Amino acid sequence: MEKKYPGIKHSFDIWHVAKNLAKKINQAGQQKGNESLLHWAKDIVNHFWYCAQEANGSEERFIGKWRGLLHHVTGVHQWALADVDNVTGCTHGALDSDKEYMEAGSPSHKALAKIVLETRFLNNTKYFVNFRHTGMLETINNHQLMYAAKRFAYSYPVYKSRCMLAALDYQQHKDRPVKLNKKGEQIYHRRYSKRTSTWSAFPEKRSKEYNYIPTIIADIVDRRLKDTQPMARKIPLLADDPRHIASTIAAMPPPPTKKLVEEHKSRFTEMSMETV
């Protein structure tokens, strides 16, 4: 793909890279002597996201910040010699975490260094620095499933209408503010992840208002009042209706129902004779 389309900038989905990174850390942490690596797993993955976002297209900036992780986990936040891109220290402020640091040169630290400095991983840096991921698209798809669940079958007009309602809901409420308590502080709620077996806190947003629903209802009533045709009339298929292509998803035309019934009866008769 890269050779065929050299003018196109190729990128990996950061979410998948982070997932693979977490898998490597968890596998290394299962080995004897590397237990402390598991306590840092979430922070390491978060640091990868941070490096990819802050790189802004620069491979040197990504590598400089990424390698700095090996200093941070040992409690060293400033170092004398710059590695890459003149990075000589962490950019975070004061830390109030009581997380236990690794000992430099310990088995856990060496295992982390093997992951961080892996040649194949660093060679793929150019696919990370554009910070491309499908998180927003996944959010929209999950939201759409609330209106058009996969376990139900819909006709095309119904499915199209449900998708439109899902799009309206998403666009109207995606930027709503978070909830605040009486002190003006953000309200958080807990969420458990079965994949990582951990609890996480997320800010709770204000409840949805659906102010657009009365407008839609009023428009439906207005259109009906102005319609001169009866409701029971036959409506032709729209030009973009997929039923113009095929009425079913079957790869072959259906046989007559009478033939299917006869085959079903004959199979039942054969099974009865075999049982006797």
Structural commentary:
The chain is mainly alpha-helical. The protein is built from 11 helices and 2 strands. The chain has a two-stranded antiparallel ribbon. Helix 1 (14-29) packs antiparallel against helix 3 and helix 3 packs antiparallel against helix 4. 10% of the residues are buried. The model has no long low-confidence stretch (mean pLDDT 87).
Question: Ends: how far apart?
Answer: 63 Å
User: Percent of residues in beta strands?
Assistant: under 5%
Main beta sheet strand tally, sense and closure = 2 strands, antiparallel
How would you sum up the global shape?
elongated
Low-pLDDT stretches are: none
- Extended strand count: 2
Task: Identify the quaternary structure here.
Answer: single chain
What share of the residues lie within helices?
A: 40-55%
Q: Element order, helices and strands?
A: HHHHHHHHHEEHH
Output the radius of gyration: 29 Å
Any key phrases for this structure?
276 residues, mainly alpha, two-stranded antiparallel ribbon, 11 helices, 46% helix, 4% strand, elongated
Question: Can I get a quick summary?
Answer:
The chain has 276 residues and is mostly helical. The chain has helices at residues 14-29, 35-39, 41-55, 59-67, 69-72, 107-116, 119-123, 135-147, 156-173, 213-226, 257-275, and strands spanning 188-193, 198-203. β1 and β2 form a beta hairpin.
